[in-house]
Write a structure and sequence with these properties.
Blueprint (H helix, E strand, L loop, with lengths): L2 E3 L2 E4 L3 H12 L4 E4 L16 E5 L3 H6 L11 E3 L1 E6 L11 E4 L9 E5 H14 L3 E4 L4 E6 L2 E6 L2 E5 L1 E4 L6 H5 L4 E17 L6 E7 L2 E8 L8 E9 H9 L2 H12 L6 E17 L3 E2 L2 E3 L5 E2 L7 H16 L8 H29 L4 H15 L2 H11 L3
Parallel strand pairs: 1-12, 2-3, 2-13, 3-9, 6-15, 13-20
Antiparallel strand pairs: 4-8, 5-8, 6-7, 10-11, 11-12, 14-17, 14-18, 15-16, 16-17, 18-21, 19-20
Helix pairs in contact: 1-3, 1-7, 7-8
């Protein structure tokens, strides 16, 4: 059996793994990309209510990968962010935090991109890139050693310098490498969907903190049928979230309206609902012999600020930069540099989002007063606000 030489294998063709493969290929690397799933059925033409928050700092990576110009549905810019606190059925506290993108320049904080839009762009670019060998659906059998890794896919064998695990939180490659993880459960579940609404969102995102969990409303690009559309991440305690997920549309929309108020006028659901149980997770290390972890295989954070995919894309950007010009992409020194560059940043974000959720997911009156005063204080501190805004932009 002939052995084909490629430089890097990426296992997992989701947004992180697919973008990594394309970005490496754009820099001249020969890449094997393997995924167990058939990618074509993911190009569902119907609007499904899911969107990704892409920070401004990650847009150049998507451009390098050739994805930005291939998005079939226009991204919606996030121009402002409102952070509020309250209780269900009551008006938000008057003490709030408002971020205006103009305070840090002309660029948007980021964009909300439909999930199907990214998938369509990925599939198109992956099929067209000559430096990528795509095998999906397929299963890879991987043998790693000090000098390289051998990968069997079907009847083919590939020899690579580095394997990147981008398979998600249950990464089989991470498990096989004996890399442990620590999980932080939240006892919260997110119900994800989209709404059509009466009033325009004007590019403003809302993060409304409630005792059961954050209620996020993210601006999306409208359609001819629904000119005003937003994505919603409705976080609640597990038991209540299960009930919300299975409710009829009428009662469910009343629950939404009770948390949203009249901010966007009358609302109705468009597309379907999705449900994800929430927990934070971090891998104890990011590499092993000829192996690197990226994206959800290495870390997972609370979606409170929509930074999950952005952290994965920042992993990709760091790997691409560190591997630039390297003769041996799997050299231990390079993988140690990658871990040193990304693990502290990802851990800081994880701990920050964890602290925010635990601070705001309580009804204890003294804590509520202290956090509301804190929001109001930050709103009056331009330098600190600017630092928060730049972090949200991924800069």
């Amino acid at each position: 059996m002939a052995v084909r030489d490629v430089e890097i294998a990426v296992i997992g063709a989701g947004p992180v793994g697919g973008t990594l493969a394309l970005a490496l290929a754009a820099r001249g690397r020969r890449v094997l990309l393997v995924d167990q799933a058939d990618l074509a059925p993911m190009e569902d033409p119907a609007f499904d209510g899911r969107g990704y928050a892409i920070a401004a700092g990650c847009q150049p990576l998507l451009a390098l990968a050739g994805l930005w110009d291939e998005l079939p549905f226009a991204p919606c810019p996030i121009l402002d962010i409102d952070v509020t606190d309250g209780k269900v059925g009551r008006r938000p506290s008057a003490l709030k935090l408002h971020f205006d993108h103009r305070a840090v320049g002309d660029d948007a904080f980021g964009w909300i991109i439909e999930a199907r839009s990214i998938r369509v762009a990925l599939n198109k670019r992956l099929r067209a890139e000559p430096n990528i060998v795509l095998r999906a659906p397929a299963t890879a059998r991987i043998t790693r050693g000090a000098e390289g890794a051998d990968i069997e896919v079907g009847g083919e064998t590939f020899r690579v310098q580095l394997v990147v695990a981008a398979e998600g939180r249950r990464s089989p490659l991470r498990v096989a490498a004996g890399i442990g993880v620590t999980k932080l459960p939240y006892k919260q579940t997110a119900v994800i969907f989209a709404i059509a609404h009466e009033k325009p969102h004007n590019g403003v995102a809302l993060e409304h903190f409630l005792p059961g969990g954050p209620f996020a409303v993210l601006p999306m690009t409208g359609t001819a049928e629904h000119p005003n559309v937003s994505a919603v991440v409705f976080t609640e305690r597990d038991a209540l979230a299960q009930k919300l997920y299975t409710m009829q549309d009428g009662p469910f929309m009343r629950e939404v309206q009770a948390r949203l108020g009249n901010r966007l006028g009358a609302v109705r659901q468009v597309g379907r609902r999705w449900m994800h149980r929430l927990e934070a997770m971090y891998a104890h290390r990011y590499y092993d012999t000829r192996l690197a972890l990226a994206g959800d295989a290495a870390h997972g954070v609370h979606p409170i600020a929509g930074q999950g995919l952005n952290l994965g894309l920042q992993d990709v950007a760091a790997l691409v930069e560190i591997l630039e010009g390297a003769e041996d992409a799997g050299a231990p020194a390079l993988l140690a540099r990658y871990q040193a560059a990304r693990r502290p940043v990802n851990m800081a974000m994880l701990l920050g989002m964890d602290a925010l959720d635990r601070l705001f997911s309580t009804n204890f009156p003294p804590v509520r007063l202290a956090r509301d005063l804190g929001l109001a204080a930050v709103d009056r501190m331009p330098r600190l606000k600017k630092r928060f805004m730049l972090t949200a932009m991924g800069r």
